[in-house]
Amino acid sequence: MHYFALLISKERDRTPEEGAAEMAAYQSFHEKAASAIRGGDALLPAAAGVRITGGPDAPVITDGPFVEGAEVAGGYYVFEAENLDEALALARDIPAAKHGGVEIWPMAGGPGLPPQPLAGTNWIALLLEPPERPVPPGSPEWEAMVVQHQEFGAAAGQHIKGGAGLHPPSTATTVRVRDGQVITTDGPYVEGAEVANGFYVLSASDRDEAVKIAAMIPASTVQLRQLAGVAGL
């Protein structure tokens, strides 16, 4: 089974020494978890991100940054694991779990990512919905959404480099590590906040084109963030 891991933490300035130490920690994690990693990347700062609301018919574009001091997505992985326990064991070793959190979501479908590293400028579009409106895979609502996303896929064409739906927030688990202790919490990291129900990886020539493509996605809110292009994460 495949799992989507969203790395959440407060953005912070790092000294060159801190940055090098964090990179070394991720390299160590990649060596340990290489057989399970099916994709992933770091994200550029939230200040360069875009929030799109209103849906494809009347999109409203808001530039980042967003909530001051809030925890934001800093990267993601796609894991292949036998079960949730195995995915959680991977998550607790991610360096971000020590100063933030890692949300683990079961994916609806396959890995959702191309087998080869992406070239050019790429973005992740997180599809967000209110937490009180979960849509489980296989339901009539889900099937109706599938039709809408097929239409988006036909319109966006080769700009789509990957993506997948996610199971409802009741199936998500957040992993944090504090003072060496692993803390798991059911559900997404921020209570009451919008929750992810899917994602796309998009390729675009520049930010304007990425926003134009993401604005066509059938979702209440789309959070668009540029991938940093870091191999393995």
Indicate the mean pLDDT.
88
CATH superfamily: Dimeric alpha+beta barrel
- Which series of helices and strands comes N to C? EHEEEEHEEHEEEEHE
User: How many structurally independent domains?
Assistant: 1
* DSSP summary, beta strand count: 12
Strand content: 35-45%
Shape field? globular
In CATH, what is the class? Alpha Beta
Rounded to the nearest angstrom, the radius of gyration is 17 Å
Q: Can you describe this structure in just a few lines?
A:
This protein is of the alpha+beta class and 233 residues long. The chain has 4 helices and 12 strands. The mean pLDDT is 88.
Fold and architecture overview:
The chain is of the alpha+beta class. It has one domain: Alpha-Beta Plaits (2-Layer Sandwich), CATH 3.30.70.1060. It is built from four helices and twelve strands; from the N terminus they run βαββββαββαββββαβ. Strands 1, 2, 3, 4, 5, 6, 7, 8, 9, 10, 11 and 12 form a twelve-stranded antiparallel beta sheet that branches. The radius of gyration is 17 Å and the shape is globular. The protein starts with a strand and ends in a 7-residue tail after the last strand.
Task: Identify the notable features of this structure and list them briefly.
233 residues; alpha+beta; Alpha-Beta Plaits; twelve-stranded antiparallel β-sheet; 4 helices; 12 strands; 36% strand; globular
